Request: fold
Amino acid sequence: MSVLDNWQQWKDFLADRLHQGENQGMGKDTVNNVAFEIGDYLAKQVEPKNDQERILADLWSVADEQEQHAIANMMVKLVENNGTK
Reply:
């Protein structure tokens, strides 16, 4: 089963990657830029697997670049306290 199939697993996966990056010295700006790049890739290349991902994809598709950065930043905030740490 892919981490994209289950919303909670996806959030935990993102949180684990976030914590790895922070532990390796990535700053907040770098984390947010990587989140934007991941969001852009997913929106263009990956079919949403659940309702939450479909909502994010729909929002991403109508957002301008500044709004997409805001969505990515909110995803970072959403998962900051998730994952296995």
Q: What stands out?
A: The CA atoms of residues 32 and 73 lie 6 Å apart. Helices lie at 7-23, 28-45, 51-62, 65-79. The radius of gyration is 12 Å.
